[in-house]
Structure formats: structure tokens, C-alpha cells
Specification:
Chain lengths: ~280, ~280
Amino acid sequence: MEIIRTVEEMKARARALRSDGSVVGFVPTMGSLHEGHLSLVRMAGELSDSVVVSIFVNPTQFGPNEDLDRYPHDLERDVALLEDAGAAIVFAPEASDIYPRGYATVVHVQRLGEKLCGAFRPGHFDGVCSVVAKLFEIVRPNLAVFGQKDGQQAAILERMVADLEMDVRIIRGPTVREPDGLALSSRNNYLSDEERAEAPVLYASLEHARSLYDSGETDAAKVLGAVRAMIESKPHARVQYISAVDWKSLDDVTELRAGTMLVLAVFFGKTRLIDNLVLGG
Amino acid sequence: MEIIRTVEEMKARARALRSDGSVVGFVPTMGSLHEGHLSLVRMAGELSDSVVVSIFVNPTQFGPNEDLDRYPHDLERDVALLEDAGAAIVFAPEASDIYPRGYATVVHVQRLGEKLCGAFRPGHFDGVCSVVAKLFEIVRPNLAVFGQKDGQQAAILERMVADLEMDVRIIRGPTVREPDGLALSSRNNYLSDEERAEAPVLYASLEHARSLYDSGETDAAKVLGAVRAMIESKPHARVQYISAVDWKSLDDVTELRAGTMLVLAVFFGKTRLIDNLVLGG
């Protein structure tokens, strides 16, 4: 496995790969890898000849009061995990290389990027879209895999790629969960024991919503109310939002149907967790 | 010369050209072509194997009170001129193909896109950057030629390309002028005879500024004052802005030097004209 630390070198390497006719798969990450990321790397491996994984804690997608400073870093551990997962190249650039002096360009996805998490984290998705657009130019992948755990992010990036006619296929990898249902996230480590004990209510409430839908209930307001009630029964939980949207357009829905994404953000103490579930046909 | 009317067909054709190893030059236009555009096409021809010219009156770069509706269209005439100028492909898509239902992505260049024309035409450069980013993905050129006449636009696009690591070289073609110095523009046709008679003052005032600089005056405020006085001596002229900026960063300068761009926007009646001049070494 190669480790590449500069934009220049990554561009040269990516172009050499493409001119060989290799199918290049790409998994952008912020490091601090867990089984969720590794499942995306393995999925990319199934679909391509060479998998590039970027590790870059992107400062522009953190708000001023968010956890950029305490975001965990352990490149050596991440590299070992990626080697096992079959990555061909790890691209771990410095922030000064991605954002040199004078950097000024922002990619914004209207509507989809302004609601749900976007309403509470202004600029977050601009940071995500801009860095992903740039990473796509550097790495020139045929396909890129993102986790359904960040369902809004995936929908926004699919929109960006379609809108700008970028030559990359976006693939969503399924959410990986702990045995008790909690979606894997680097931020789970911030939870106290008490908060950690309560956090599985997020997926449990989404599963409850699915069972209501499966038994014929399609009134979004009713189902979302049931989700909220379950979550609010936990003393450390504070709901930021719970919504029902189309999983691709992110338009709000009032009647649940196949392709509806139930999506939520909930604080446990100071730690903000997100999760979602897409209803089937 | 080929005429291509759909994004899909242009993408396929561009990828075939690139896989042949052809160097592709690109000149994006809004049609209504004049010698200024044609000089860019010929310049692209000198530097590449195949020149693609797009003709697309991009609605998103016009403000609500601007001249989108009266912007001139004559595809047949434009096609004949481009054939003579040596273009290989004319790409003339429909707006509904570039902006399908649900389109949501905007590329914004901070600072450089927010001053000068950007301060008076909110959203204009977002429209330009977004459509150019998309056209670059569709046409995949090795190089693209833009007129120095739109000096701020060229600097913004150079910034965007550098920031996002796009694989295209931006080249600025010199401004083509009428014998009396007026920069060629589709909008010159809107001028009344009286306004047309006064409009050459724009370039005359910029040339006067250059002669002041050449004789040792480097105080930007003084030189800009002299430019303003010359222009305001014309009864139909109304200055929107006159500035001295670095031609690449667009940062304001107080001391003129090589690479300073003197840049202005002036109304004659309802018609807004722009011009600029870059000081030499």
C-alpha cells in the first residue's frame, strides 16, 4: 500500500492509474477509522481495480463551536486498518496543501444543503461539497463510496455530481451498527457510560417507525411523533430534528412511502449523533 | 464543423477526442459573436488540435433586472463565423439540458467574486463559475480561452480552477477594440448614436492613466481621479465603479505597479459597459 502526502503526487499517481485503464474506487474519510469506513473500502474494492482512501480532517466542514480541535487523529492505526481492508493508496494531505493561501472557492448545493443538518450547521455541507469536488479532481475516481449513515451528505453529493456532470459514480454503503443498533461513529467515543447506554434508542425508534409503516401507517407526522416520544423518554437525549424526506431529493414528505428516509439528529449531553433509515418498497 | 445540441452527445464526443490524444481548446460564449470572440477562437486554434466553442446564453448569470430577454441570438450567423474561424465543434445546448428540474449546485468564489462587478451584480459570477465548471466537465478541454475584456471574470475562473485542481489551463486573450478604442461587446449595439460617440472615453481615460503611470505617477487615488474626471466630462456617462486592483488576486492596490489592472464599469444611458487595462513592467 502506498501512502501519498501531497496533492501534486496524488494527481500524478491518479492520472497514471487512469491511463492504465484501471477502475479507480475512492473512499474519502476524516480518519479515525472504524468498521463503518472499512466496509466502504471493501465495497469499493469489490467494484474497482484500485482503491484510494483519503484521510483528511477537513477544517471547512466544522463550525466555530464544533469539535475540530478534539477530532481524533491516529494515522498509523488508520494506515494499518486500510492495509488490511485492501486499499491500494492512502492519500493524507496537509490542510495547507488543500487550502493554500488565497483559496476562495465554495461549492454550494441549494435546498438539499440548507435543511436538516444544514440548518443547524451552517457552512457544513459547503465544506463537504467543496473538498469532495476538489478530491474528485485530484483522485479522478470512476466511483466513490459514501456511507448511508450520512444520508443527507450522500444525497447532496449525488446532486452535485449530477448537476456538474462529474464523471464519477456515487455509491452508498449501508450503515454499520453495534450489536445494540447504535450506528458506528467516531463521535460515539465522546459518550459517557450513561449516554452510551441510552443512545441505542435512536435506531430502536427508527425500527419502531418502520414497523408502524410496515403495518400500514403512512402518516409521517404520526410516525415521527412516535419516534420523538421514544427518544425523549431518555433523560440525556435532546432532539435537534426528526424528519421524513425523500432519500434522493430530500424533499419533505407527509405520506410515508418506499424511498422515504426517516432522519434525525439528537444530542446526548454535548455529543450530537445522527442516524437514518430508508423505508423499503 | 460539427454542431452538437445535447450534453450527452457533447460528453461522448469530448471523451472520444481526449482518448485520441487530441489537445482540446475551448471557448465558452453566449453567442452574438464579434471579432473579440473570434480572436479567442483563433488563439485556441493555435494552441490545440480541436477547438470547441459553446454558445449558451446562461440565464443564471443575469440578474432579475438585466438584459437576458433582449440578449441577441443568431445561431446561424454565429455558426458561419465559427466555421471561418476554424472551430471544430459548436456546442449549443438548451437551458433545460444544462439546468434540468431540481438543479441546485452553485460554485462561488469568495472575495474575488464579491467586489467590482460582483458588488453590483449579485449572483452574476456564481452563475458564470457554475456554468463554466459544468462546461469544463462536459467538454473536458486541455485549455480554455477567455477575453481580458472581462478581466475580473478571467481572474475568478483562474482562482476556481486552481482551487479545485481542475485540469484545464486558462488563457486570457487580449481585448479587441474598434478603431476609436471602444472594446468590442455585444452590448455596444444598445448604444444610441450620442452614447456611442461618447463611449470611446473609457479606453481613452485608461490610456491616459497608463501615460500618467509611465511618466512616474504611482498614486492610485490620483490616477483613478483623473480617469473619473475624463469620463464624467461626458454628459451621458454615469460611473458605477473605477478601481485599481492586482490583475490576478483582484486585491485593491494603492500604489500602481506592473500587473495592476485599472478596471471600470460605466453606464451610458441604460447600457452598462466595462473595460480595463493592465499596467506593464
